[in-house]
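Complex 305.
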Amino acid sequence: MALNIVEVSPRDGLQNDPADAPVQVKVELILRCIAAGARRIEVASFVSPKAVPKMADAEQVLEGLRAAGPLDASLIGLVVNERGVRRALAAGVDEVNAVVVVTDTFSRANQSTTTEQTLAALGDLIGASHSAGLPISVTLSAAFGCPFEGEVPLGRVVDVAAAVAAFGPDEMALADTIGAAVPADVRERIPPVRGAIGDVALRAHFHDTRNTGVANALAAYESGIGTLDASLGGAGGCPFAPGATGNVATEDLVYLFERSGITTRMSLDRLIDTSRWLSGELGHPLPAMLSRAGPFPGGRSAMPA
Ligand code: ZN
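Predicted structure with zinc ion bound:
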């Protein structure tokens, strides 16, 4: 089974970076990721600019990408409500990713609604996306732990997953938003969640906050998950989750999987080049290990550059 990586650095990565990346840097980052082999990219978040100032330029990023001509990738817009879906559709995204936070306290902090209130509005979000002919995925945020409530019972995650699946999204993502999970949690949670969502595709989203992100990614793959979110350089975090740090790094995953004989269809050399370029643009080092250490001695890439 090949591993598909959804690149999330332009959104999850830059949203919480201390630096303010201008539109042209975001556009270049996305184009470089496509050149490195990324085929699905979360490019922007269509949320209130007051809540997330770094994503206020979502429309301009899409404009810049469309001006670059036809792209060999699906551009994903993140939304938390119906206004966001309308904006994302008008801006010309290729797919939508909605968020349902599994715990009420974090849900209020992230999107000013309880989990139940988010679920009540979800049908309209999914309907709006499908009416426009676009696929929509739903991320179950804080599915392994909550920054405010701590432990999140598996039963709660399964119940929310089943409720989301009933609305008929094209895909769902199980997200460790605060990087609290260990591989045993991943192995424990994936089978019952899968059981609760029928034939809806499932992907996973890990943060490396406690140095377990890469181990969790492998555990997810070994539990049958063929699509993982990752962020170039390991950039990222969440402005509404205290202490959350970066996503699992794209180049670190590509190294791990390719050296294990599992294709990712991505060029490790180009990813490392782009990660180092991004670090320069942001003006600080990024946490990814591969871009510090370099590839395997002698340089065997996944896809010759
Ligand atoms: Zn995240």
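The mean pLDDT is 94.
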